[in-house]
Design goal:
It comes from Caenorhabditis briggsae. This is Chloride channel protein. InterPro entries: CBS_dom, CBS_dom_sf, Cl-channel/antiporter, Cl-channel_core, ClC. Its main location: membrane. The two termini are 37 Å apart. The chain is mostly helical and 811 residues long. 53% of the residues lie in helices and 9% in strands. The strands form 11 sheets. It has a 3-stranded mixed β-sheet. A 3-stranded mixed β-sheet has the order 17-18-21. The chain has 4 domains: 33 residues; 231 residues, Clc chloride channel, CATH 1.10.3080; 241 residues, Clc chloride channel; 199 residues, CBS-domain (Roll).
Length: 811
């Protein structure tokens, strides 16, 4: 449609000033648009049904990708307004202001992430005081000496009070997740990993998510669950990074009017990366490990400037939490505090060359146990997803886990008599000595593991003398904590797996060290603490399959590089062994959530999968100049977030879908909303209004709360014309029909694309097919999205690589 309309007409009537042929095409296009939309939906349903039938024959029935996840838009829309902005005299000053604001925002991210971390730690500290001083020690002191260690009613009162307090805190955490912010459940690392990969996870970095996460994880840890607060700190830091950088809050409906230049997916991604690094730094006192974590686990884009800003945020976060916690603990200004997880400093740093094979063996054990943990947790999550889906059922499960965790702790103390003289462990502090049922002058070694914060239990296993814990104590505690962590990770509370995995690994690692000492009694210098450290690294590495960043985190958390080589070897072997069986825990949960994430490398054996098989043909395109009525109808009848712009649209005599001409650009759905909202319509050859200067940066979030009815378009408005050309992105990425899947994959992964258009050799948005009986080439439309690429997954069966094609689930 290239005619110019000067007289107001209906979208379904002819304009006397336009060409009759073009007018008839336009009228037919408008009147048949709804019918075409129904045909497209019917075609998609038939295709979906056929794919579901194919998938039902596969062994992994859960393999699908959800259609509800959309891609983030990292590409700059270099339209005419974007180019004109560079010509303004103030552009040089604008560049300097943006650069300055980036560093200022990174500083604020570090400060606020440190404040959140300190808030969580202080809440857990007060909860510990209530549990251990007001409930446990006070009630036990009321029991007579002859009643301790028995099943007398007094001891049952202690246990019921303990479990009741835990259930109250866990109820608060569960309510926040189930009823306020469901995305706040778990550690949040899989969601942040998906976000940095380029996937828009709904509400993942909202303020209400941050509040629910911070309060919920404090209640989860304080409620005695096998959960850590360090993993959720990464999610909290990412939410801080997204919130601070936007200068507004969707949850509160407040816009501070600052940092408008950062209100796009591209800039927000960088600040979320900085927030994730700051979260790791606050949790472990490991700024370098935080930067490496964002690189290894999340970021799909990297440059030197971003690295410096991330390290700056991580360092500010680490020092902020150190200063606050040093002040809170009566040592104001002591900046060498170690974040939320203080693992202590190893006194004995010696190890010999003959111990390297033992460390490698620990890596093998960690890989096997990590693979077993991931397999069982994945099966449990599938069961939970299918049978525990109601809100009441999820809340009841949380309370059941809290009650069972408390009951097993008391049961273990009754079952194991591991009382030690108070002077047997000179490294134990007053908070780590708990008499429980032991006689006067003794303390319970079991209680020093169960009845204190997990970080303190890890510290005890790392630094206590060799005879501080009995063999049976370590065996039973390791098995119980492994199973409780397995059950806890995935329930509807904020909870991390870092510290529980470290604590489990430290238990069996220390047991391994004790066995080595008994096998080689004549060898001096065998310290079970360093084997506990290796076991902790192996267990955590076997679960999450991290290598570089985890090595740096452990070295920074222990303030020692001496064990860098053993830890690195342990984590490498652990990953190799674990990968032989299954994926890491976070990747498994991402697959269960049906998120179309793109890995680091394309699937093997996929070179012969070409663009004409990958692409979708149900494209809805626009011409460079369109009736407002047609744009409104397209926005009503489709859910597409972007539309290619072509030079012509013709009816195909052989296909139900139109035949499109040359690709000229594309425009986002949010940009069309902005044009309609500002009435950028043409009447008598002029524009009625001007757009804001930041139009080229508008994103989907800008219009997520709006609908077409909110725009208040009149019949007069819909009769006008809209010139799209000045506002579209004029040179979108495109590939020919014979492009291979690995090449397409690298384009999406490296450039963070949202759309990739498929054109034939003449640069038409179409595919060429040979029509039977007439042997004539016809043109069809094609576009590739993230889901189209992600549905091809690499699988290994019978020692051979295969490529499975998943179906797109609409549910």
């Amino acid at each position: 449609m290239t005619s110019r309309g000067r007289v107001r007409t209906s979208s379904n009537s002819l304009d006397p000033n336009e060409d009759p042929v073009s007018g008839l095409e336009r009228v037919m296009s408008n009147s048949n648009l709804e019918q075409m939309a129904r045909q497209r939906r019917r075609h998609e349903e038939e295709l979906l049904f056929s794919r579901q039938i194919e998938e039902s024959d596969r062994t992994d029935s859960h393999e699908a990708l959800s259609a509800r996840y959309e891609s983030l838009n990292y590409e700059v829309s270099e339209n005419r307004l974007y180019r004109d902005a560079e010509k303004k005299p103030s552009h040089q000053l604008t560049l300097w202001r943006i650069s300055r604001n980036r560093w200022f925002v990174c500083f604020l991210i570090g400060v606020f992430t440190g404040l959140v971390a300190a808030f969580i730690d202080i809440m857990v500290h007060y909860s510990k005081d209530i549990k251990f001083n007001w409930i446990l020690k006070y009630l036990i002191s009321k029991c007579g000496e002859e009643q301790r260690g028995t099943t007398a009613g007094c001891m049952w009162t202690v246990m019921i009070a303990w479990i009741g307090y835990n259930c109250v805190l866990v109820t608060i955490a569960a309510i926040l997740v189930i009823y306020v912010a469901p995305i706040a459940g778990g550690s949040g690392i899989p969601q942040i990993k998906c976000y940095l990969n380029g996937i828009a996870i709904p509400e993942v970095v909202r303020l209400k998510t941050l509040v629910s996460k911070a309060i919920g994880v404090a209640c989860s840890v304080g409620g005695g669950l096998c959960a850590g607060k360090e993993g959720p700190m990464i999610h909290s830091g990412a939410a801080v990074g997204a919130g601070v950088s936007q200068g507004k809050s969707y949850s509160l409906g407040i816009d501070f009017g600052v940092f408008r230049e950062f209100r796009n997916d591209r800039e927000r991604r960088d600040f979320v990366s900085a927030g994730a690094a700051a979260g790791v730094a606050a949790a472990f006192g490991a700024p370098i490990g935080g930067v490496l974590f964002s690189l290894e686990e999340g970021a799909s884009f990297w440059n030197q400037n971003l690295t410096w800003r991330m390290f700056f945020s991580a360092m500010i976060s680490s020092f902020t939490v150190n200063w606050i916690l040093s002040w809170f603990n009566g040592r104001s200004g002591w900046l060498s505090w170690t974040g939320l997880a203080n693992f202590g400093i190893f006194e004995n740093k010696d190890y010999n060359i003959w111990e390297i094979p033992l460390f490698l063996l620990i890596g093998v054990i960690g890989g096997c146990l990590g693979a077993l943990f991931n397999y069982l947790n994945t099966r449990l999550t599938e069961f939970r997803k299918k049978y525990v889906s109601s809100k009441f059922g999820r809340l009841f499960e949380c309370l059941l886990v809290a009650a069972v965790s408390g009951f097993l702790a008391f049961l273990t103390i009754f079952a194991i008599d591991d009382c030690q003289p108070i002077g047997a462990n000179p490294t134990a502090t007053s908070t780590q000595i708990n008499q429980m049922w032991c006689k006067k002058g003794e303390y319970s070694a079991v209680a020093s593991l169960f009845f204190q914060n997990p970080e303190e239990s890890v510290k005890s296993l790392f630094h206590s003398p060799i005879n501080s814990f009995g063999v049976m104590t370590l065996v039973i505690f390791g098995i119980e904590y492994f199973l409780l962590t397995l059950w806890t990770f995935g329930i509807s509370v904020p909870s991390g797996v870092f510290i529980p995995a470290i604590l489990t690994g430290a238990a069996w690692g220390r047991l391994f060290g004790i066995l080595v000492e008994r096998l080689f009694p004549s060898v001096t210098g065998i310290d079970p603490g360093k084997y506990a450290l290796a076991g902790a690294a192996a267990q955590l590495g076997g679960v999450v399959r991290m290598t570089i960043s985890l090595t740096a985190i452990i070295m920074e958390a222990t303030k020692d590089i001496t064990f860098g080589l053993p830890i690195m070897l342990v984590l490498m072997v652990t990953k190799w062994v674990g990968d032989m069986f299954n994926e890491g825990l976070y990747d498994s949960h991402i697959d269960l959530a049906e998120v179309p994430i793109l890995g680091w490398n394309p699937p093997k054996m996929s070179r012969n999968i070409l663009a004409d098989r990958v692409m979708r043909k149900d494209v809805v395109a626009l011409e460079r100049r369109e009736r407002v009525s047609r744009i409104v109808e397209i926005l009503r009848s489709t859910l597409h977030h972007g539309f290619p712009v072509v030079d012509r649209i013709e009816e195909s005599p052989y296909e139900s879908l139109p035949d499109y001409g040359r690709l000229k650009g594309y425009i986002l759905r949010s940009q069309l909303f902005k044009l309609l909202e500002n009435r950028i319509f043409e009447e008598e050859g002029t524009s009625s209004n001007a757009l804001p200067n930041d139009f080229y940066e508008c994103q989907d979030d800008d219009d997520q709360m709006k609908s077409l009815n909110d725009l208040g378009l009149t019949q007069y408005d819909e009769s006008c014309w809209l010139d799209i050309e000045p506002y579209m992105h004029p040179h979108p990425h495109r590939v020919p029909l014979n492009t291979s899947l690995p090449f397409i994959f690298r384009l999406f992964r490296g450039l963070g694309l949202r759309y990739l258009f498929v054109v034939n050799d003449d640069n038409h948005v179409s595919s060429s097919v040979l029509v039977q009986f007439i042997f004539q080439i016809f043109q069809l439309r094609g576009v590739i999205t993230r889901k189209d690429v992600a549905r091809f997954r690499e699988r290994r069966r019978n020692h051979e690589y295969h490529v499975d094609e998943l179906y797109i689930s609409e549910s």
